[in-house]
Amino acid sequence: MNVKISGFIKKRNELLLTFEKLNDIELLNKIADLKLSIIPVTPEIARIELHKARLFVSGMPKELVERSKKWLLDNGYSLEDLSWLDV
């Protein structure tokens, strides 16, 4: 069980570190590879979710956290409110 969790965390963190460099198809494929129970409907929603996730995952480089904060604010999204996810 622990191996599966550590493998997931490794893949998730790699995605959080690199998703800005991926095109839409690559992005959705990487997310599908995580085998989540809920997959974003569009690449745009995926990018919003990934920018938000960077804010809450420990160990993210400060530069990436700040870049995601800026991206979210510049695009009209709250840094705290997750209600737009409709979960």
Overview of the molecule:
- By secondary structure, the protein is mostly helical.
- The chain has one domain.
- 62% of the residues lie in helices and 0% in strands.
- Helix 3 crosses helix 4.
- The radius of gyration is 13 Å and the shape is globular.
- The termini are far apart.
- The model has no long low-confidence stretch (mean pLDDT 89).
Write the layout of secondary structure elements.
Elements: H1 2-18, H2 24-33, H3 43-56, H4 62-74
Describe what is shown at a glance.
This protein is an all-alpha fold and 87 residues long. The chain has helices at 2-18, 24-33, 43-56, 62-74.
Q: What percentage of the residues does DSSP assign to strands (E)?
A: under 5%
Q: How many beta-strand segments? A: 0
Number of helices in the DSSP assignment: 4
* Mean of all residue-level pLDDT scores: 89
Overall shape: it is: globular
The total domain count is: 1
Helical residues, percent: 55-70%
Reading the helices and strands in chain order gives: HHHH
How would you describe the oligomerization state of the chains in this entry?
single chain
Low-confidence stretches: none
- Determine the N-to-C terminus distance: 26 Å
Radius of gyration: 13 Å
